[in-house]
Design brief:
The protein has 349 residues and is an alpha/beta fold. The protein contains 13 helices and 10 strands. The protein has an 8-stranded parallel beta sheet with strand order 1-10-9-8-7-6-5-2.
């Protein structure tokens, strides 16, 4: 690998199992573009031109290694037939279904995965990736997110929540979720995405057997992403759920980067695993100056970089609109200046 590799050269090395000289810095800064473009989020999500323009501005300001092409947790559910009702005050949607759907069951109006690929905003997401691929003149990475099988199955059967249990998910819902996740991942990678986040929100009570079954459901998407020379990242957004299941998760062989959200400030050292390429996601409170001082931010960055030694640093989902951008730029500078060749446990001077 060259002395000062580009993001794409580092990604190519990761695909070959070679750790990069520093972590790739790929924060998920997507819906903030709606504010930049002075659009309601509902309108922004359907406008490929506005999304492309805002992402180029965001990337230039943050000096990140990649652009967040499309990240919307309701993309798949809407394409499957869900109806989004938008709150004009919060700009956040609620998900419903045209026909009555019992909790824990598939909605009667559910479309099949093949049909879903032609509906909703799926085409917009693919178009954004294609546009940014043709517009970019540097080695920036194009990133996108898809819902993992547990998360999507729980969303379409109305089983999301703190008491989520993967054992309650109907097999039919998991089959739909796996099929759509795989097809969407393939479409994003074929359009030009270099890094695809498969996002899972909760994994409560994950036994070794369940973890193995979960890994087998993820395998088709991981394989197709790698087929297109893109990097799959399994992003586990709930820090508590990950901590409860980290031991069994790291017993699996993962053909991807396993990315988890860290606590802020860290209360305990997370289990290490030399066999798994690790990514780390910073929680929202780490990005907001009013919640923690600069000294605390330095502590968590020292912990993340020197102890966890990640190959990728991102954010725990799309950053909130109220994120302190100066703070995010400072994190960017720290991550990009980190030297991963230093011995573990030694902080930067």
């Amino acid at each position: 690998m060259p002395a000062n590799p580009t993001p794409r050269q580092m990604l190519a090395g990761l695909l070959q199992g070679m750790p990069p000289p520093r972590p790739l810095w790929v924060p998920i800064v997507f819906s903030l573009g709606a504010k930049m473009e002075n659009l309601p989020l509902s309108a922004f999500l359907g406008n490929a031109t506005k999304i492309s323009n805002s992402q180029r501005q965001i990337r230039s300001h943050l000096r990140s290694d990649g652009l967040a092409c499309y990240f919307d947790p309701y993309l798949e559910a809407e394409a499957l037939g869900g109806v989004l009702e938008w709150n004009t005050e919060t700009q956040g949607p609620t998900l419903g279904w045209p026909k009555h759907a019992e909790k824990g069951e598939l909605p009667e109006s559910l479309h099949g995965p093949e049909e879903a690929m032609k509906r909703g905003r799926v085409g917009v997401a693919i178009e954004v990736i294609r546009r940014l691929k043709s517009l970019l003149r540097d080695d920036s990475l194009l990133t996108a997110g898809v819902a993992g099988p547990f998360t999507l199955a729980a969303r379409i059967t109305q089983l999301e929540g703190e008491d989520f249990d993967c054992d309650l998910l109907p097999e039919a819902a998991l089959e739909v979720a796996v099929s759509l996740m795989t097809q969407l991942s393939a479409a994003f990678a074929e359009a030009g995405a270099n890094l695809i986040f498969i996002q899972e929100a909760g994994l409560l009570r994950l036994t070794a057997e369940r973890c193995e079954a979960w890994a087998s459901r993820l395998a088709p998407a991981l394989n197709i992403i790698r087929f297109y020379q893109a990097l799959p990242v399994l992003q586990l957004t709930d820090s508590r759920s990950f901590a409860e299941n980290s031991e069994v998760i790291f017993q699996q062989h993962w053909d991807c980067v396993v990315c988890h959200t860290v606590e802020f400030p860290p209360s305990a050292t997370v289990q290490q695993s030399s066999d798994v390429s690790r990514g780390v996601a910073l929680p929202p409170e780490a990005l907001q100056a009013e919640e923690a001082g600069d000294r605390d931010l330095d502590k968590i960055l020292d912990y993340v970089m020197s102890e966890l030694r990640p190959t990728i640093v991102t954010t725990a989902g799309d950053v909130p609109v109220g994120t302190d951008m100066k703070r995010l730029v400072r994190i960017s500078e720290r991550v990009r200046s980190y030297d991963a060749t230093r011995p573990p446990g030694r902080s930067e001077d």
